[in-house]
Task: inverse folding
């Protein structure tokens, strides 16, 4: 089987330019909407407001070849896999956030870090929790 | 850009049959090795033993069309996005585990839940932590 992705929807955020995107998710950030395509809406049944979900999404227009790059402090080159940068061999973003609301295939969460229109790859019930002590992007 | 994945390595686990795989990761499970392809080994620089990483991997031979399926208790059909099942539109597995050792492109962790030979997609420094109170696969 070829490893190709299908987009299950898109993400609406307030950010239309890369420079506007925060470095990481922010549990107290603005509302964002996961807009699930019609054919996948049944897949949301069983999810509830307040429940934490792991959201996977696809960063476009990234450098997929950089094995080392600057960290935020810019002082040294660090391995891509030691950073949360979107520039990586497989530019998949991951965030764990609680569901604010679910309404007809639209799941609202707070504080995603991606551009509006970002392709949505997956939603899973979280067995992972945000460690707010770290910011490693 | 087409959303295609490139495998950055593979995962060695003790499991050669689906029925042997645990339902979820187990922080106290057996040692597993993330074997990173030569061309990506530089990407590991900066990662340290003891550091928690988010590991993304690719489940093969799954049903990518099921929007509802049985949960472990098997009592009712639940939406795919409310389950951790590998049967989903984009069969990407996610686990957060601490690094045991790193040696020449081989990152050892404990307790992954996938078959040996599973394709490795990404390693990120974790800003996510396992919530051991949940088992939702």
Result:
């Amino acid at each position: 089987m070829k490893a190709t992705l299908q987009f299950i929807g898109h993400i609406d955020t307030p950010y239309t330019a890369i420079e506007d995107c925060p470095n990481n998710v922010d549990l107290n950030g603005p509302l964002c909407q996961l807009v699930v395509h019609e054919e996948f809406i049944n897949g949301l049944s069983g999810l509830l407001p307040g429940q934490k979900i792991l959201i996977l999404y696809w960063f476009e227009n990234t450098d997929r070849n950089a094995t080392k790059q600057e960290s935020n402090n810019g002082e040294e080159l660090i391995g891509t896999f030691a950073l949360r940068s979107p520039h990586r061999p497989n530019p998949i973003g991951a965030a764990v956030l609680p569901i604010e609301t679910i309404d007809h295939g639209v799941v609202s969460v707070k504080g995603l870090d991606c551009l509006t229109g970002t392709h949505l790859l997956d939603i899973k019930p979280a067995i992972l929790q945000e460690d707010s002590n770290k910011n490693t992007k």
Notes: Chain A touches chain B through 57 residues (CB under 8 Å). Residues 129-137 of chain A have pLDDT under 50 and may be disordered.
